[in-house]
């Protein structure tokens, strides 16, 4: 487990999630690759937020039904508007050039 500042884990490894859910790690990897299970990819390694596993358990408990990760929508952050991202970059570039006497960075 990957501990946070307070000693409680923030992420599980795929093997740890598989142990918690009592399934084979290959099942978790397959679900992640099919975009049916929440995970974070760091280079060639996946980690799963502890909160996501806890939320699955809570959803199953509250609903009293079987939760299927393939059919249950995974909450995802809203995609930023590409135009607003460009405006942010442009304004930051302007701030940076003002900070160095109005000159643009050489590339």
Overview of the structural elements:
With 107 residues, this protein is α+β, with helices and mostly antiparallel strands. The termini are far apart. Helix 1 packs across helix 2 (25-33). A 4-stranded antiparallel β-sheet has the order 1-2-4-3. It has 2 domains: 2-75, Multidrug-efflux Transporter Regulator, Chain: A, Domain 2 (Orthogonal Bundle), CATH 1.10.1660; 77-107. Helices cover 46% and strands 14% of the residues. The protein is built from 4 helices and 4 strands.
Q: What would you call the quaternary organization?
A: single chain
Low-pLDDT runs: 96-100
- Can you write the helix and strand succession as a string? EEHHEEHH
Helix content: 40-55%
Order of strands side by side in the largest beta sheet?
A: 1-2-4-3
Estimated radius of gyration: 20 Å
Q: Using DSSP, what is the number of strands?
A: 4
CATH domain topology of the largest domain: Multidrug-efflux Transporter Regulator, Chain: A, Domain 2
Helix segment count?
4
Shape: globular
Quote the distance from N terminus to C terminus: 42 Å
Derived structural class: alpha+beta
Largest sheet: 4 strands, antiparallel
Number of structural domains: 2
How would you state the average pLDDT, rounded?
Answer: 78
